[in-house]
Amino acid sequence: MFPYWLEIGSFRLPTFGPMVVLGFLSGHFLIKRELDRRGIDPELATSLVTAGILGGLAGAKLYFVLFELPAYVTWGETLRSLFSGSGLTFHGGFIVALLAVLWTIARRGAPLASTADACGLGLTVGYALGRIGCQLAGDGDYGVPTDLPWGMAYPNGVVPTTQIVHPAPVYETLIGLVILALLWFTRRPLAEFRPGLSFCLYLILAGVARFSVETIRLNPEVLFGLTGAQLFSLAIIIAGIGIGVRLLSHPQGSRLSGD
């Protein structure tokens, strides 16, 4: 692992940041390409990614302050945490980012369903690359101890451990690439059958993947023996199924389809 890609004395640049940037750039590329293929202004991709970044950061930090900071921290510590690199959870930022993206789509008058399908591709590749940054940094996203041959320790990580644990970020990257391949090779037939179904498939697959990985993660249980990420994963799985059923039960071209 390589927590820092540049170290000069006490000055250090983390490897996580560049991987997140690469994830956003790759997501932007796929969204722009898919929008252009669907006959939608490809320049909308820049606005969508910008809205997603700003909304995601704001939502992740808000979630972190409200639900993950200990109750005893001071206002000064809370303020410092807002401007730190910690607290950037996917499920924390997803809702606010989604609202920001929906507002951007509505403001630009773009077709909702087809634009959402394009966004699913960008979200998948961005998440997969971002998890590479987690693996390189050893930032604590690894799993529970294991004796499997591919288990590894993170002695030099940002959150170090000498135990042999599940490399959960590696799992998430590999699963993300599999989901990306499924979305990529089904995007044309699904778009011809009903715009919006590809995004529903993304929600279902991403939810199942994160729920599964959480079974070997270190996150604390919140409710019914499930972690916060697992509860969120169940929510987006249900949303994906529900939206898909609604799309299929309404004639194509209706207001619900967004196209």
Provide tags for this entry.
259 residues; mainly alpha; two-stranded antiparallel ribbon; 8 helices; 6 strands
Walk me through the structure.
The protein has a domain at 4-40 and 111-192. It is 64% helix and 8% strand. The protein has helices at 16-37, 44-68, 75-82, 90-108, 112-137, 168-193, 197-213, 228-249, and strands at residues 4-8, 11-14, 152-154, 161-165, 221-223, 226-227. A two-stranded antiparallel sheet has the order 1-2. A two-stranded antiparallel ribbon has the order 3-4. Strand 5 and strand 6 form a beta hairpin. Helix 7 packs antiparallel against helix 8 (228-249). The radius of gyration is 19 Å and the shape is globular. Mean pLDDT is 84; it is low at 81-86.
Poorly predicted regions are 81-86
Gross morphology: globular
Oligomer: single chain
Number of separate helices: 8
Mean pLDDT: 84
Instruction: Please tell me how large the radius of gyration is.
Output: 19 Å
As a percent range, the share of helical residues equals 55-70%
State the major sheet: 2 strands, antiparallel
**What is the element string, with H for helices and E for strands?**
EEHHHHHEEHHEEH
Q: Beta-sheet strand percentage?
A: 5-15%
Terminal-residue CA separation: 45 Å
Write the layout of secondary structure elements.
Blueprint: E1 4-8, E2 11-14, H1 16-37, H2 44-68, H3 75-82, H4 90-108, H5 112-137, E3 152-154, E4 161-165, H6 168-193, H7 197-213, E5 221-223, E6 226-227, H8 228-249
Antiparallel strand pairs: 1-2, 3-4, 5-6
Helix pairs in contact: 1-2, 1-5, 2-4, 5-6, 5-7, 6-7, 7-8
